[in-house]
Amino acid sequence: MFEKIGGCTGKNMKPLLDGIGRKITDLRLSVTDRCNFYCSYCRDAMAPSIGQRSEILSFEEIYRMSRILVGMGIEKIRLTGGEPLLRRKIEMLVRDLSGISGLRDLAMTTNGYLLKWKAAGLREAGLRRINFSMDSTREERFDKLVGCHAFAKVLDGLQAALAAGFDRVRLNTVLIRGMNDDEILDFVEFGKRMGAQVRFIEFMPLGEGNRWRKDLVVTAEEILAAVSTKYSVLPIPRSDSGQTSREYHVPALDTIFGIIPSVSIPFCDRCSRIRITADGHLRTCLFSASEADVKKHLRSGVSDDEMERFFRDQIYQKEAAGHQGESPDLATSCRRMPTIGG
Ligand code: SAM
Quick check: helix, strand or coil at residue 84? Predict the structure, then answer.
């Protein structure tokens, strides 16, 4: 769709470092703040959405920004939201981003509701990996959690994604005590049956009103203990220094599952991520208290070199640590997940 200008050409490429020497390689791009699910821990049904369509970055703006960032050292882009499949013609954006030279990975996080119709087209457009968010394996509970009858459609979406030949399909499950923590073993077995790896994510304090309490967090230790009541579990050594999940092999099932212990064992010292919100704000940490206005720069006619300087300045100031894990005054972020891009 757009004129293709190479991103990283490989020549004179220096790693993109923040002020404390972390290498920044991952960009999470929220393409919309709208969602068709109403998971109460994630979004606030009463909260206004971003509003005017013109507030949301256009595909042209997303492409330009991504091309500049890949040229600076970003290697992986994950499209998220809100629900990214609600963004019209998302396949066109995928096709354009996948053509940026130097980009090594293009992935998406989705609730899967629309994937039955979109999986093949997205794969064909160049999407490499898909993460599914799924917080229950039980139809009635699932539908209640997401606030609509969606379980059957999500399973169809999962089958379509598996059939479309993505490099990897994962299931992401946020565990919340009293909500779904009785399904840990069910999830590991479900993942094995479906042929998709499960990753358990600790519940994080994001935005006022997401009902986060420390005692609701099901910790990595508890998750391991639950799986170990039935199966022996072997830790898998980390393959990549920026890896946020801890992975485990269950020999009896010949399957792997992962845990992202963001709260009980924060990994800020290895964080390689930045985020851009659907309305064009750069967040250098999920828990950032402030944001930089990328959209204003993009729309003020600045050159690519000026954009690059702006990004470099902001990334240099990336927060050393987002939250203090065990500290009782764990901060809540100013935005909730759908507007940040999870
Ligand atoms: N709509 C897409 C989806 O459902 O995957 C993408 C956006 S959604 C905000 C991305 C992920 O963030 C989901 O897996 C959701 O469970 C997770 N999430 C939202 N709030 C969270 C929180 N407070 N702690 C941990 N994960 C959270």
Answer: helix
